[in-house]
């Protein structure tokens, strides 16, 4: 049996069907809107806040270690003061006594300096604990917000994922039926227009979504479905209103089955 010839009208119908399918996919993705990006940004924010918390806790550990070192230094200085004081009792001359006195004074200064540092460290600890508490509270708030947004996204995905996958497969199937050059032109136009409409019907004498009137002679050519005509202003592929209505009704039935 001879293979049925694919007419220009067949190509136009297939292209418009493809457009309706891809527009439906666009609608589904628009419902999701910025949610996936919002969830991703929130995940990054929470991760960043947790990293900050870890750094703050590490700083606290470092300060605790510094305090411990200063306390040890104080104990060492006290032990040296005791030792030098005992030695002063057995000195043979003033020079030895004065030398030991200087050592004792030096150790006393070391103790004062260590105590000053400990006080400063304790102030730092209080400040960092305050920052940690605020950061923890912020983390909790953002985690709750993230959980809410993830829930929203999961609900939308659960409602639309099956339909979207079926539509994507259908879109791919249609592209296989259409000549590569037409698919390439269709994709190029879709990528160059804001609303993704590469194939549009004539509406009230103008191409869909445009205010530029199409001359009556061109409208007749489009209605004859003998060749593929593009809008000279937008570059979109044009179909007549009747063909568009027929394909919309056909695809509406398909969408209902999904």
Secondary-structure map with pairings?
Blueprint: H1 8-32, H2 35-88, H3 94-177, H4 180-192, E1 199-203, E2 206-207, H5 216-224, E3 229-230, E4 237-239, H6 241-257
Parallel strand pairs: 1-4
Antiparallel strand pairs: 1-2, 3-4
Helix pairs in contact: 1-3, 1-6, 2-3
How would you characterize this protein structure?
A hairpin with a 6-residue loop joins β3 (229-230) and β4 (237-239). The protein folds into two domains: 8-32 and 179-257, no CATH class; 35-173, Orthogonal Bundle (Helix Hairpins). It is built from six helices and four strands; from the N terminus they run ααααββαββα. The model has no long low-confidence stretch (mean pLDDT 94). With 258 residues, the protein is mainly α. The protein starts with 7 loop residues before the first helix and ends with a helix. Strands 2-1-4-3 form a four-stranded mixed sheet. The relative contact order is 0.14. Helix content is 78%, strand content 5%.
Number of strands: 4
CATH topology-level fold name of the largest domain = Helix Hairpins
How many domains comprise the coordinates?
2
Cα-atom Rg, whole angstroms?
40 Å
The secondary-structure class comes to mainly alpha
Series of H and E elements: HHHHEEHEEH
> Percent helix among the residues?
over 70%
What is the percentage of strand-forming residues? under 5%
Number of discrete helical segments: 6
From the spread of the alpha carbons, the general shape counts as rod-shaped
Largest sheet: 4 strands, mixed
The CATH class of the largest domain: Mainly Alpha
Low-confidence stretches: none
Query: Going across the major beta sheet, what is the strand order?
Result: 2-1-4-3
CATH architecture type of the largest domain: Orthogonal Bundle
């Amino acid at each position: 049996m001879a293979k049925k010839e694919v007419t220009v009208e067949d190509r136009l119908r297939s292209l418009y069907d493809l457009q309706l399918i891809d527009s439906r996919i666009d609608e589904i993705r628009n419902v999701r809107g910025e949610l996936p990006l919002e969830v991703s940004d929130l995940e990054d924010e929470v991760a960043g806040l947790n990293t900050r918390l870890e750094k703050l806790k590490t700083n606290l550990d470092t300060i605790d270690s510094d305090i411990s070192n200063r306390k040890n230094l104080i104990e060492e200085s006290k032990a040296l003061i005791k030792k030098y004081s005992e030695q002063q009792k057995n000195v043979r001359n003033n020079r030895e006594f004065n030398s030991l006195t200087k050592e004792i004074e030096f150790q006393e200064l070391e103790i004062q300096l260590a105590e000053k540092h400990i006080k400063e460290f304790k102030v730092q600890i209080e400040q960092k604990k305050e920052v940690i508490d605020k950061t923890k509270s912020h983390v909790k708030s953002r985690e709750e917000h993230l959980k809410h947004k993830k829930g929203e996204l999961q609900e939308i995905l659960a409602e639309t994922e099956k339909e979207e996958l079926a539509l994507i497969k259908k879109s791919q199937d249609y592209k296989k039926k259409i000549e590569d050059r037409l698919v390439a032109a269709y994709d190029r136009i879709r990528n160059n227009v804001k609303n993704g409409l590469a194939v549009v019907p004539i509406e009230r004498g103008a191409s869909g979504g445009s205010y530029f009137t199409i001359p009556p002679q061109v409208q007749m050519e489009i209605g004859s479905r003998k060749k593929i005509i593009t809008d000279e202003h937008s570059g979109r592929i044009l179909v007549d209103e009747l063909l568009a209505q027929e394909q919309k009704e056909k695809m509406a039935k398909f969408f209902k089955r999904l």
